[in-house]
Design a protein that fits this description.
By secondary structure, the chain is α/β, with parallel strands linked by helices. The chain folds into two domains: about 1-125 and about 310-320, ATPase, nucleotide binding domain (Nucleotidyltransferase, domain 5, 2-Layer Sandwich), CATH 3.30.420; about 130-300, ATPase, nucleotide binding domain (Nucleotidyltransferase, domain 5), CATH 3.30.420.40. It is about 45% helix and about 20% strand. The chain is built from eleven helices and twelve strands. It has helices at about 30-35, 45-65, 85-100, 110-115, 165-175, 185-190, 215-230, 235-265, 280-295, 305, 310-320; strands at about 1-5, 10-20, 20-30, 75-80, 105-110, 120, 125, 135-140, 145-150, 155-160, 270-275, 295-300. Strand 2 and strand 3 form a beta hairpin. The structure holds 5'-O-[(R)-(carboxyoxy)(hydroxy)phosphoryl]adenosine and zinc ion (ZN). Zinc ion binds near residues 110, 141 and 275.
Length: about 350
């Protein structure tokens, strides 16, 4: 089957064409530059930008895939969670297309889609579901940090999540305190490569708690007070690199240790990770080391598929369609607060 998927839950306008588990095209238009001057995503601007971009993005996905809209067998879109006005654009556009083409429509949970992005691998990306196995999945982005047990395809259980800030938010906000541009996550990653992760000691929140929850707001506050008490640090380029490496080490240690602990407790042999923060080199390295040490197989989403994209929406939609999962009625609304169960 050939399917077009749209993703507009936050600040990426994306369209993908999937056929029989393969990605024929995955076009992503990022709005990062637009929101940078505000230091974060402005929902109204995001929605207007999606409106401007979704048609050219969808058209270029169809062109890249070498097909026209009438050749599509189904349409899918992110139904939630996400920014309401941003979701509305892609979801309603996709519903209208399905209505016009008289094709099935599939509404997808954005987080559930992240669970499957590590199974889309290679260049060009090819869905490798033959290798699928029960796994402990870390979803770590600007809006979310969660651990999910994926028992089998399309069957999962959320084990824990952040009780306050997400890990990506912690990267972005602490970077802002250091004067780094938005989003600071990639910049911290870059500077930390030449910094000393043991230079400054920051808290590892909830590291020793028995649950699978995360909390990063205390770490953010601790960096705020540290910078307030040592303002001279920010005048020294090497000290900033050390600060980046130290903050990153605290975030990464919590993410890696809690992920491995949950994987061992749940008895799975495979760990996966996706979401924007999975681009972080230290996190990728440390997850690799830890999984190797504990005899676990690791599948990391390809860096191009860590951040929000429609390919993961399309791949999941196709699996759901083929599994005869009930489809929502064509006039169903978006679900901005749709929590993964
Ligand atoms: O998944 P994503 O594109 O959007 C959502 O938030 O859903 O993730 C964006 C987040 C931002 O907080 C960004 O700073 C973070 O991912 N990020 C990184 C890196 N690349 C992106 N954080 C740390 N290191 C990176 N290399
Ligand atoms: Zn996401």
């Amino acid at each position: 089957m050939t399917l077009l998927a749209l993703e507009t839950s936050c600040d990426e306008t994306s369209a993908a064409v999937c056929r029989d588990g393969k990605i024929l095209a995955n076009v992503v238009s990022s709005q990062i530059k637009l929101h940078a001057e505000y230091g974060g995503v402005v929902p109204e601007l995001a929605a207007r930008e999606h409106l401007k971009n979704f048609l050219p993005v969808a058209q270029s996905a169809l062109r890249e895939a070498g097909i026209t809209a009438v050749q599509l067998d189904a349409i899918a879109a992110t139904q939630g969670p996400g920014l309401p006005t941003a979701l509305l654009v892609g979801y309603k556009a996709a519903q209208a297309m399905a209505f016009a083409l008289q094709k099935p429509f599939i509404g997808i949970n954005h987080h559930e889609a992240h669970l499957y992005s590590p199974w889309i691998a290679g260049t060009p990306p090819v869905a490798d579901f033959a290798a699928f196995r029960p796994n402990l999945s870390l979803i770590v982005s600007g809006g979310h940090t969660m651990l999910v047990l994926v028992e089998s395809e399309l069957k999962h259980r959320v084990l824990g999540g952040t009780i306050d800030d997400a890990a990506g938010e912690c990267f972005d906000k602490t970077g802002k305190l250091m004067g780094l541009p938005y989003p600071a996550g990639p910049e911290i990653d870059r500077l930390a490569e030449q910094g000393n992760p043991a230079a400054f000691d920051f808290p590892r929140p909830l590291l020793h708690d028995r649950n699978d929850d995360f909390s990063f707001s205390g770490l953010k506050t601790s960096v705020r007070y540290f910078i307030r008490d040592h303002p001279d640090l920010l005048q020294d380029a090497q000290k900033i690199r050390d600060l980046c490496a130290s903050v990153q080490a605290a975030i990464v240690e919590v993410l890696v240790k809690k992920t491995i602990r949950a994987a061992k407790r749940e008895g799975v042999r495979c760990v996966t990770a996706s979401g924007g923060v999975t681009c972080n080199r230290a996190l990728r390295r440390e997850l690799e080391r830890a999984c190797q040490r504990h005899g676990l197989t690791l599948r990391l989403a390809d860096k191009t598929l860590c951040t929000d994209n429609a390919a993961m929406i399309g791949i999941l939609a196709e699996r759901k369609f083929l599994a005869n999962t009930p489809l929502p009625p064509l006039d169903e609304e978006i679900k901005p607060g749709w929590a993964l169960a």
